[in-house]
Every structure is written in structure tokens, then in C-alpha cells.
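Last lecture ended with a question: if I hand you only a sequence, what can you say about the shape of the protein? Today we answer it with a concrete record. The protein is Protein kinase domain-containing protein. Below, first the input exactly as provided, then the predicted structure, then a couple of comments.
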Amino acid sequence: MSVNTEEIDEFPKGDSCPVCKKVYNNALFWCTVCDSKRLQDDFPNWTSEFHELDLCIRNTQLNADAHTEYLEWIPFEKFENIEKIKEGGFGIVYSATWIEGPRWKWDNELMKWVASGPRKITFKTLKRDGIDERRKEFLKEF
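The predicted structure:
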């Protein structure tokens, strides 16, 4: 599998949202109304199983100003080539290939941002022992 490492520059055409036709209120082809609503509609379809973290992720999605400026929960099975990088006090950092990749590509037929293909990423897991305390510390770091 090849990993896409270059930036994706496939944006909607024009200066207004192709879905609602409103002029963009930012420079990065992101419709704060339509795209935030799409992310919000997807809230029931994912969870980290840690309510406070879900709220943090959702908050970034509802307040995003661009298609690259929000967090997303990615299930573990969406990663390949997982390699441990470093272990810290309460977690372990890994590198991996995110199979689908971020939604950095505009699809004119579907009229939405779609996955841009495999992407090399890093992620952090929390150690199981003392998980409740680790979650609190993680949120402080987050």
C-alpha cells in the first residue's frame, strides 16, 4: 500500500458552498453550517466510550473553520502497520497507517468532503492500570 504524504488540494469550486449556496465565511472552502451539521449528524455513529473525550472531539467538529481543523474518533481497526514509538507515564505513542485517511478531498458528485486515502499518523493509547485517573490526566493534556 502506498501512503499519501502530500497535501490534498481538491476543493469545491467557486466562493460559495455547493450544498447551501451561501458564500464561505472563511478562506478554506469550509461551510460552517453544512459541514458542521454533517459531522453532528454522525455523532450517534461513533464513540470513544469516554463521554468527556467524545464531548471534546464533538466540540472541535462543531467549531471548525476548515476541513482540516477538527478532531475525529478513528476506530482501532482502521489502522495498519502499527509500530510502537515511545512509552510514557500514562500512555504509549504509536505510528500507523490510517487506511481511509482524513476527509481532505471534495467530491463534487457526493457534494461532501471524502477520505483522501492512506495517511501515516501517530496516536496515543492510555495504559489500563488506573484508567480513570489516566483519563483525567489525558484530558488535561488534551
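Comments.
1. The first helix runs from residue 34 to 41.
2. The CA atoms of residues 49 and 93 lie 20 Å apart.
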